[in-house]
């Protein structure tokens, strides 16, 4: 009788569970039994592993073979267990020393010819291994850079089972053909991408980013965009077609600071599981941008699918921007599914096969027309929509969802003079991003020693008691709360926006003007004097009273 064991990782969403792979050989009729709640792709590993072992020059044991995956109560799927199963079998057959396998973590799919194919989710799998105390992992060569992102882990990247057998048996390591060295495509990379998602869905590609200087006019909307980036406040653009709502939203990710090391690992882990991580770029350093079509389903937005759920758009936009264009055309039920992750920063999807918790701390940007035809309230008009149709159209954005949106901006059509003067004095993305970064640093210094990094994360109770505004500055917001124009959540969000406006202006605490401007965006009622956030190149005006057309929606 022979026995050997090694380890691998089962992914449940973006979290990993360490799985012990045990192989037992006993005298009897040659058979291969795999137990431990495997799915269809894992059951098929029996044929892949047998062929890979034989084609790698090793002898397949002609005995009764049982491979167990523990804990048996955890559902296991995917082809990433192939490498661990093959090594456990070879250890039980004494081709490899079982003692060399015990403390190894192995992740990888095997081809019939013995080549080790990369799989998705290597980063979260290695993170789970590190948390469990493992310090040595074996992964496919193509994902070794991704696994090396985890500190304190020794990573061995192999291209074939033959190479791994030679390393573990202390034999000369054979060379394997690398198609990339000959300029040919590497077919093994196909396993890293989910069909239909694209190689870089949700991730910035190349060095080019849309420049804010391309946006003509829209001074109020530009300032609101700056505040949204500085404090991670959710924003809503409403205006006629062609006014620039989508242009503004597309430039929002460029204003966000680069991801911290912790945020980069979290974002990379999500995109690794989703199969949207670009090959050759193991670490995501820039905030992602995800813009699903307005016909997106519930599962595609918050996560789901058959079997165990998969990350949706809210998770792909983690620490980045989720832009929902034509929001009033979306299903109200789908849009309302955003309400919980907007508050908690994560989404919990429950299915019959299991429950999964995925990160979803994103900056939400919504855009919608004022009516079905898009011409309501514009100069020249021409809107033929009935008042009842306009009300129903606006009601598709529910009150509870809009109550979680801090900034509501009316995007007016651009004047001819502003369009002709495009590029003259308009601030670039880089210039605005510098002010955003300075405001973020000011907020982080104030919030040092707390679990929060931006103003949008600070609970309202802390803002009201721990960090005080200027005396009397909160009086207008308190009056609106008494009159029913503000909810308790709305008051907290007004305070957060006011603190961000103060950080952009370099003030130590919000003034009456900051609170008035935040209230103006919230209620649509113009009040107080104009405020300024500093910086040259564009005039900082208060939001126009036109925001009132959605202020009560």
Automatic annotation (TrEMBL):
Residues 527-553 are annotated as: Disordered. Residues 231-415 form the AAA+ ATPase domain. Transmembrane segments: none annotated. One of its GO terms (molecular function) is ATP binding. It holds the Pfam family Mg_chelatase_C. InterPro entries: AAA+_ATPase, CHLI-like, Mg_chelat-rel, Mg_chelat-rel_C, Mg_chelatse_chII-like_cat_dom, P-loop_NTPase, Ribosomal_Su5_D2-typ_SF, Ribsml_uS5_D2-typ_fold_subgr. Belongs to the Mg-chelatase subunits D/I family. ComM subfamily. NCBIfam families: YifB family Mg chelatase-like AAA ATPase. This is YifB family Mg chelatase-like AAA ATPase.
